[in-house]
Structure formats: C-alpha cells, structure tokens
Amino acid sequence: MLSLFKNMFGKPTDFKGIYENGALILDVRSPREFSTGHIKGAINIPVGDLKLHIAELKKTNKAIIACCQSGGRSEVARITLGTAGLEVYNGGSWNGLERKIQ
Questions:
Q1: How far apart are CA 38 and CA 84, in angstroms?
Q2: Are 27 and 55 in contact (CB under 8 A)?
Q3: Neighbours of 62 (CB within 10 A)
Q4: Closest by alpha carbon to 29, among 21, 18, 38, 20?
Q5: Which domains are present in the chain?
Q6: What pTM, to 2 d.p., does this model score?
Q7: What is the DSSP letter of 23?
Q8: pLDDT tens profile 34-68
Q9: What angle do CA 38, 44, 50 make, to 5 degrees?
C-alpha cells in the first residue's frame, strides 16, 4: 500500500542534497520581508522582478531552490524560471526550507 502512495505522489524532493550540490537559495519575498529573516547566503529577488533577472540567474549555471513566506510565491517563481529553462524547485517557506537543508 505504501508503495502505491509513493508511486502516486513521487518521492520527496531532497532539498538538502540539491543545496549541498551547489544550488542557489532564492528568496522571492519583498526586501522588507527578507530583512526580517532569511536563510544565510540566500539571494533576494522579489517574485515580481524575476523576469528582469533570468539572464543573470542563467549565468550562474546552478539549480535554484525558491522560497518565500508560505510557498505560493515560490511556486510562481518555479513556474516562471522553469519556463525560462532553469532547473528550479519550490522550497516552500523559507524557515521550513532552512530546517530541511541543515
């Protein structure tokens, strides 16, 4: 029965492994939100500004783990950047992601 659910929903994303392999942490909250707390080393590009930074992000040649307050904006980032050809994952909330990559 458990294998049925694994096949239906897939295995969980290994955020720690992706991060340890050099992925960028991209926090897509506003600068004000970012200033109240964030993952050390994360870069802050608000979700509304992402299209202006696609070329810059592509130049890094790294996977991206997007995060925000709850996971909604990071899903928009995943779709936006993924459509542009980047390898990007929705890490959900920044503080939840921080626990997953430690």
A1: 25
A2: no
A3: 15
A4: 38
A5: 15-101 (3.40.250.10)
A6: 0.89
A7: P
A8: 999 999 999 999 999 999 999 999 999 999 999 99
A9: 140
